[in-house]
Design a protein that fits this description.
Layout lengths: L1 H24 L10 H11 L4
Amino acid sequence: MIIKLAIILLFYAGLHIGLWKLFEKAKYKGWYSIVPIYDLIIWLKIIKKP
Protein backbone atom coordinates (compact mmCIF):
# COMPACT_ATOMS: atom_id res chain seq x y z
CA MET A 1 0.00 0.00 0.00
CA ILE A 2 2.75 2.46 0.93
CA ILE A 3 4.73 1.56 -2.18
CA LYS A 4 1.73 2.27 -4.41
CA LEU A 5 1.21 5.61 -2.70
CA ALA A 6 4.87 6.52 -3.17
CA ILE A 7 4.71 5.65 -6.87
CA ILE A 8 1.55 7.72 -7.35
CA LEU A 9 3.08 10.69 -5.52
CA LEU A 10 6.25 10.48 -7.62
CA PHE A 11 4.18 10.40 -10.80
CA TYR A 12 2.10 13.36 -9.61
CA ALA A 13 5.23 15.35 -8.68
CA GLY A 14 6.82 14.60 -12.05
CA LEU A 15 3.69 15.71 -13.85
CA HIS A 16 3.63 19.04 -12.05
CA ILE A 17 7.35 19.63 -12.51
CA GLY A 18 6.91 19.05 -16.24
CA LEU A 19 3.90 21.35 -16.44
CA TRP A 20 5.75 24.00 -14.43
CA LYS A 21 8.63 23.96 -16.92
CA LEU A 22 6.26 23.94 -19.89
CA PHE A 23 4.43 27.00 -18.58
CA GLU A 24 7.73 28.81 -18.04
CA LYS A 25 8.84 28.04 -21.59
CA ALA A 26 5.54 29.44 -22.85
CA LYS A 27 6.30 32.69 -20.96
CA TYR A 28 3.78 32.13 -18.15
CA LYS A 29 4.56 31.91 -14.46
CA GLY A 30 5.25 28.36 -13.36
CA TRP A 31 2.93 28.43 -10.38
CA TYR A 32 -0.04 28.85 -12.74
CA SER A 33 0.27 25.11 -13.39
CA ILE A 34 -0.74 24.36 -9.80
CA VAL A 35 -3.95 26.44 -9.67
CA PRO A 36 -6.80 24.02 -10.54
CA ILE A 37 -9.04 25.80 -13.09
CA TYR A 38 -6.65 28.56 -14.11
CA ASP A 39 -4.11 26.01 -15.38
CA LEU A 40 -6.65 24.72 -17.89
CA ILE A 41 -7.32 28.24 -19.14
CA ILE A 42 -3.61 28.89 -19.61
CA TRP A 43 -3.14 25.45 -21.16
CA LEU A 44 -5.78 26.31 -23.79
CA LYS A 45 -3.99 29.59 -24.51
CA ILE A 46 -0.71 27.73 -24.97
CA ILE A 47 -2.19 25.28 -27.49
CA LYS A 48 -4.22 28.11 -29.10
CA LYS A 49 -7.66 26.56 -28.68
CA PRO A 50 -10.77 28.49 -27.60
